[in-house]
Specification:
The protein is an alpha+beta fold. The chain has 12 helices and 15 strands. Helix 9 links the parallel strand 11 and strand 12. The protein is globular and about 65 Å long.
Length: 387
């Protein structure tokens, strides 16, 4: 009996000897012979939040944080290397319903993490067989959030209450990678921080972390992106950028205008804003369903106010291979306002625009009146301004 006991725990022991090695063993009866997507850390094509790598190169070509696996004999195995704990997200694409079902995050450390995966549509919680120390901490942290976060859905009911709980936790756990990642998950993955005051609290909480944590890629990327958000606030001027330039150093500075973008060889942003009382800049792409859902309302608003000093500039981040679909989308929805393509997302990356749609309503001088104004708010604003 003792002999078999030693053999069972030998893989964990061996992985524990190398502080950088990790192994994820996934088990699922429900998804046998199916493909799953495994994301470690943050999916990003621009900012390096992560500090890990998979053992081989068979990962998504767009972002090395993704790996696609197929369950064979009810199991898959992933190996890799990491410098500190990371969250992991497992998803399944349902082709019949054209929808993605994702599990709640779990944390991995160096060593072996063994998990059970059930029907992700019905149950987003993963059942660990061999649980990591960091995941134990994450479960504890979630319990502390019970007054502000729905324990079944993880939907935040009171963001200020959650921030207050996190603040108390950080005062006692300044070396917590889990607390760092919890902030990153809300900010960079779930994107719940829409209010600038909440972002300021988030920044203060992050600054409570220890010097060791502050040296990580994860912390540096979080602070960088929060500070970039502060540079595009209501009441500030939109910075100068050039859509056609791949080498221009973007300076987003307070009291400067939103980029006087060289939209093509003739047009620039300032030439458009100066001719109109109000200009809406809409960042979108042709496969973005929420973006497309807004177009009928924008069309109605534009037809009403285009002769009254209102203009829209649509800037798409479609990839080069999707340029035809971008053009067809413009024709399909009859988008008869200014349309430009930000090839390779040069401008949007410099502006730290990561979610779509994102829009900015500017005045005649290029000052940001409102970020992410809804079509309903926009219509009411223009109606009041024209009276």
């Amino acid at each position: 009996m003792k002999f078999y006991f030693i053999l069972f725990f030998m893989p964990t022991f061996l992985y524990g000897q190398n502080r950088n090695c990790f192994k994820i063993i996934g088990n699922s009866i429900f998804y046998n012979n199916q493909n799953l997507a495994v994301q470690v850390g943050v999916f990003s094509t621009t900012d390096n939040y992560n500090d890990f790598k998979f053992e081989n190169d068979k990962v998504d070509t767009v972002s090395p944080s993704f790996k696609f696996v197929k369950l064979q004999k009810y199991q898959f195995t992933i190996d890799g290397f990491l410098k500190y704990p990371h969250p992991v997200f497992i998803s399944y694409y349902d082709a019949e319903t054209n929808s993605v079902h994702s599990a709640f995050p779990f944390f991995i450390d160096a060593g072996v993490t063994n998990i059970n995966i059930n029907d992700l549509f019905a149950n987003k919680n993963l059942s660990p067989r061999l649980i990591s120390k960091s995941n134990v901490e994450y479960q504890l942290l979630k319990k502390l959030y019970s007054n502000s976060v729905d324990t079944l859905t993880l939907i935040i009911n009171n963001i200020r209450a959650k921030q207050k709980t996190l603040n108390k936790y950080l005062l006692k756990h300044q070396d917590s990678y889990v607390a760092l990642w919890d902030m990153v998950i809300d900010y960079a993955i779930y994107k719940i921080y829409k209010n600038n005051d909440d972002k300021k609290i988030l920044l203060k909480n992050a600054q409570l972390l220890s010097p060791t944590i502050k040296k990580t890629n994860t912390y540096k990327a979080l602070i960088k992106n929060i500070n970039q958000d502060f540079e595009l606030l209501d009441g500030k001027l939109f910075p100068d950028i050039n859509l056609n330039s791949t080498n221009q150093d973007l300076q987003i500075v307070e009291n400067r205008a939103f980029p006087n973008m060289s939209l093509n060889l003739i047009d620039s942003l300032s030439s458009v804003t100066k001719k109109n009382k109000f200009t809406l800049i809409d960042f979108w792409f042709s496969y973005c369903k929420p973006c497309l859902a807004e177009f009928p309302q924008y069309k109605e608003i534009y037809d009403l106010y285009k002769t009254k000093g209102f203009e829209i500039i649509g800037i798409s981040v479609d990839r080069k291979e999707d340029e035809l679909n971008w053009q067809n989308t413009i024709k399909k929805y009859n988008l008869n306002w200014l349309q430009y393509l930000d090839k390779n997302e040069i401008v949007t990356n410099k502006l730290n625009i990561k979610s779509f749609p994102t829009n900015f309503l500017l005045d005649n001088n290029g000052v940001i009146i409102k970020k992410d104004i809804s079509p309903e708010e926009l219509k009411a604003f223009l109606q009041n301004s024209s009276n």
